[in-house]
Amino acid sequence: xxxxxxxxxxxxxxxxxxxxxxxxxxxxxxxxxxxxxxxxxxxxxxxxxxxxxxxxxxxxxxxxxxxxxxxxxxxxxxxxxxxxxxxxxxxxxxxxxxxxxxxxxxxxxxxxxxxxxxxxxxxxxxxxxxxxxxxxxxxxxxxxxxxxxxxxxxxxxxxxxxxxxxxxxxxxxxxxxxxxxxxxxxxxxxxxxxxxxxxxxxxxxxxxxxxxxxxxxxxxxxxxxxxxxxxxxxxxxxxxxxxxxxxxxxxxxxxxxxxxxxxxxxxxxxxxxxxxxxxxxxxxxxxxxxxxxxxxxxxxxxxxxxxxxxxxxxxxxxxxxxxxxxxxxxxxxxxxxxxxxxxxxxxxxxxxxxxxxxxxxxxxxxxxxxxxxxxxxxxxxxxxxxxxxxxxxxxxxxxxxxxxxxxxxxxxxxxxxxxxxxxxxxxxxxxxxxxxxxxxxxxxxxxxxxxxxxxxxxxxxxxxxxxxxxxxxxxxxxxxxxxxxxxxxxxxxxxxxxxxxxxxxxxxxxxxxxxxxxxxxxxxxxxxxxxxxxxxxxxxxxxxxxxxxxxxxxxxxxxxxxxxxxxxxxxxxxxxxxxxxxxxxxxxxxxxxxxxxxxxxxxxxxxxxxxxxxxxxxxxxxxxxxxxxxxxxxxxxxxxxxxxxx
Length: 646
Fold this sequence. Notes:
Layout: E1 2-11, E2 14-24, E3 29-34, H1 40-47, E4 55-60, E5 66-69, H2 81-86, H3 90-101, H4 107-118, H5 121-134, H6 151-165, E6 169-173, H7 181-192, E7 197-201, H8 205-211, E8 214-219, E9 222-227, H9 230-265, H10 272-284, E10 311-322, E11 325-336, E12 340-344, H11 351-359, E13 366-371, E14 377-380, H12 394-399, H13 407-416, H14 433-446, E15 451-455, H15 463-475, E16 479-483, H16 487-493, E17 496-501, E18 504-508, H17 512-519, H18 523-528, E19 541-543, H19 551-600, H20 604-607, H21 611-638
Parallel strand pairs: 3-7, 3-8, 5-6, 6-7, 12-16, 12-17, 14-15, 15-16, 18-19
Antiparallel strand pairs: 1-2, 1-4, 8-9, 10-11, 10-13, 17-18
Helix pairs in contact: 3-4, 5-6, 5-21, 9-10, 19-21
């Protein structure tokens, strides 16, 4: 499907590729990795023909469709989210623009509407709504202008467009950056079933493990391919490096022996011819390069915060709403010293809002926040970059206010977060958003508070930097609460999981694997709680091994489980009632659809001018019918037991 041969490419005197080759076949699943600046994005540019190689060729089969998701800054205009997601070709985008901008009386709009139907636009819309829902768009969001959304949501809409398009080759540059944990799970499952070839740049190990069948590493100006996922790659690479080291050391010994013979006997007439033979042997020898050393893991003694009280912070009766949308009602939460808690749950459940409440960043509608003894709070989110002094250098900003740590140690830490060599002398003002975010993270680690709140801290970090952050946080002796979509990061740090859904907090007193094992028992209840539903009578439920509980805790857990079963039963009844109503409405719409098709097949319809209004009614009906059938699927899956057929 795609073949790259003999690729060479240099920028600014630095060679990225030298005689590199690559082949992508139909159905391949490739993860593209390499050190920062190794040339991953450049390789994408060569494949997309946005750049030309200095030497070599990139050949793509005819009629192959290619879809590309950039890491940042995908465009958006006046189109709605749904229109963006269905703009799978330039023609479709043009047709949508005409329908949106022209009046009902404009003949050009009528022609565009007819062409939209010919391009199967209505089916595309049904498919797009399903994919947008998987990426956490609410039904009411899809008709909003895309330009009114944040950059992250626009990227999700573009990702939806590619999944609707289903290109033969799907090229993704850090696609998980803008996804929460729940959307990421849906996305991974979708890619596992994807029929085309995929090549993805990603620093998310769990994502690469989930979707990849090969890893392509850019190293030593070559493209090295490893079979299997990322974990397989690590094992194969270690074995390959060991073999290369052995071959390198053996050759070096052979070279040394040859050179000793040459130096000893070159001047002796009786041995001169033998010495010349060894000189020629050395010249003909293909030299084995020593494997490049792996990036050293960070070895750094982080300053530790002042010890807080056992009760770090307490929330009582918290109510928090954004306009009419209530996020929390009568929320109670107590955080104890030393906890390492990850907040998980669907998008919009309130994870970031809870972090902001704990950080004192939001005015509360009701309730009380009680800080513990000697509490100091550090909150890491994008807005934190505004606290940087733009006129300072990176090194000056990192060292500001730090005592007891040498400048060299600070530079070591900066290096692990991609500020290497002369980068530390750059002005903060010229840094990109990602670089400022990384610098803010370094400053936080150099002056840690005793309650650390992190919102997606691994965004913009490569794997080495993520490992450095994990190493730092493992040394950290304070209390940690964080939100992340990086499963590797979560598994490395979380000792407690709090699941948030519809204002309800469920605490799992174990690590992420414990949460996955135990949360299956409540998955049915979670599936029956629609987004936006809220039951204020439910409180935080503690789940832990029963053998470690006292009688009081077991009674409390049983009571909570009984309430959950009661709520689940009510939700199931409501779902069955709604399912029956949906089936009735589907039947009615299908009958009307038959009537409209019959009328449109009658030539008299076009003579009396009714065709346009009937076509419009049919389009609206098909959209409504598609939405109802999607709802029917969701309801059918959520109701246990036998499901009636529609």
